[in-house]
Amino acid sequence: MTIALFQQDAYQNTCDAEVRAINDRGGIILNQTIFYPTGGGQPGDSGTLTFGNSQIKIATTVKDRESGEIVHVPEAGQSLPEVGQMVKAEIDWDTRYLHMRMHTALHLLCSVVPCGVTGGQIGKEKSRLDFDVGEKPLDKDQITEDLNRIIAEKQKVEFRWITDEELENQPELVRTMSVQPPKGAGKVRLVKIGENIDLQPCGGTHVNNIEEIGVIKVSKIENKGKRNRRVNIVFG
Ligand SMILES: [Zn+2]
User: Fold this and answer.
1) Are both 42 and 122 inside the same structural domain?
2) Which end of the chain has fewer CB atoms surrounding its CB within 10 Å, N or C?
């Protein structure tokens, strides 16, 4: 399987890699990559692959549903590298960094709105989470204020890999998590923000310190059925 460098260091924006395979739809599989594949509401990365005198554009990155492989999807009509060829991979960093800031902001939103999350989408200009709020009223201005107060605390975002066994031995850990970890995966990566702001399993890309998010504003709260509310955020 491709080594997912973005899980070790979300700030790495280039790497050298070897082409392992080209799938039947022209998707490129590398031995290691900094391209994040679409998942968890976060869009896949775009960027370039450079080899010899050629450079091709990668339109997006996805995870193959069957094999789980990370597939780099080239824009149509380009000459592809060959299997075994070395390439220099580079992501569209400006877009990715916006995704990292938004993604981390959504973790804070989870902490501010203590309700079950039923969906979400990250974008470079706006992002959203859907909550099952029950009867609980949500106030746009209050959430905006709470988010920015937390961001001003400048807390670190930290990771910890945990095995199923460790998790079983620490049931109190699961109770404090805002999202339950998947069972049977062997190990999960936990994302911890500050001492008690947010703790949940997550494979996405985050900023190192929540200060980097900058000012956030709740642009609107939409009514999506009796119990569901969609909270949209933008950079302020
Ligand atoms: Zn995350």
Assistant:
1) no
2) N
Residues lining ligand 1 (ion), CB within 5 A?
A: 202, 204
Same domain, 176 and 216: yes
What spacing in Å lies between the alpha carbon of 200 and ligand 1's midpoint? 8
How much distance in Å is there from the Cα of 230 to the middle of ligand 1?
Answer: 18
Domain end point (choices 47, 72, 91): 91
C-alpha of residue 31 to centroid of ligand 1, in Å: 24
Determine the pLDDT at residue 50: 98
Q: Domain boundary at 91, 126, 155, which? A: 91
Mean pLDDT per 10-residue segment, the chain (236 residues): 94 98 96 96 97 96 93 96 98 98 96 91 96 92 98 96 86 77 82 92 94 98 94 97
Nearest of 143, 116, 133 to residue 224 by alpha carbon: 133
**157-163 and 187-193: which strand pairing?**
antiparallel
